[in-house]
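Box 3.1 — From sequence to structure: Ketosynthase chain-length factor
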Amino acid sequence: MSGRIVVTGAGVLAPNGLGVADYWRATLAGRGGVAAPERLDLSPYPLKAAGEIPGFEPAGVVPGRLIPQTDRTTRFALAGASWALEDAAADPSAAGRYDVGVVTANGCGGFEFGQRELQKLWSQGPQRVSAYQSFAWFYAVNTGQLSIRHGARGHGSVVVTEQAGGLDALAAARRKLRDGTLRLAVTGGVEAPLCPWGITAQLPNGLLSEVPDPHRAYLPFDRGAAGYVPGEGGAILVMEAEDAARERGAPHVYGEIAGYAASFDPPPGSERPPVLTKAIAGALDDAGVRADQVDVVVPDAMGVPAMDRAEAAAIAEVFGPRGVPVAVPKTMTGRLYSGGGPLDVVAALLMIRDGVVPAAVNIGDIPAEYELDVVLERSRALPVRTVLVIARGLGGFNSALVVRGVRP
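Predicted structure (token representation):
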């Protein structure tokens, strides 16, 4: 084995596109999915916009028997995994008994399912509560359902580190593939927090944008930034060792998961600085690349001024002032929690494939002191071989992952 762990399949569910092709087409066109949601009435809440996935119908992509026992987040996961395996032309049943595993991330759980069953408990009594409530709400349910659905009897786990979790899950899958525990991994993260319980759970952090105009609600790195907009969806990937992928005749290799590192910020009030730079430097070191060899950075882009300022400072410290193009595709989707990192990884892989960096939407008034070269107004054509993706979770989680192109 070469030791290189590559992505051979992807399934995308984003507010601006279902499937890799639709998502990428929308992203390059600057077509966003942040709007007033159709499935959720936001009038009782201070926020007025969200990244909702329109038109997702589980029938046809999710087995009918699973629909009554799953939350929307699990239906996303089931659809994404099926699309990713199809994209990779991978058949888990053809692998060894314990060669296929599942590692997912989740930050919100099955909020909508849980809320519905709790309402039944209050209004109709315990006898009306679904037996599926025992697991449909749980953070690990996507790993379990995907393992059962695809007969993946190998290693299975879940990572819960808020928005950083999606990158952490890919890294955990990479470790299991590198040490030979697995031959093929289904991994990534998706979320579905757009329901009354899900929104209410986010209100206490005080970081949600209350700007009513969907085009001005989420402005990461912009002078008008006023908080983040929540979104749903994410991405599920198929990962395997490069030699194994080529041996079985995988139709394509999107790229390599080349490096990863994580760090944890000190608690507020400690007077110690954030340590995002340690995660970035660690990921570059793990990948064996220098800062000047990174072609694009895809940041976490919280949209909260203090957090944007800290991330901008970390990027400028590692890469120099305006030292690397910065792509912010999340301006078109909102903040997807554990789904955000894997979706950004898909965007990074497509930048490498097509040699183009998508422009952010809605933002443009970026403070000079941020010292960032954010790609704005129009996509930028340039050779892309190495991309750094950053994700930060509330509570101090920092993750950085290096994606690199693989020559045939």
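Summary of the box: The chain has two domains: 5-248, 259-404.
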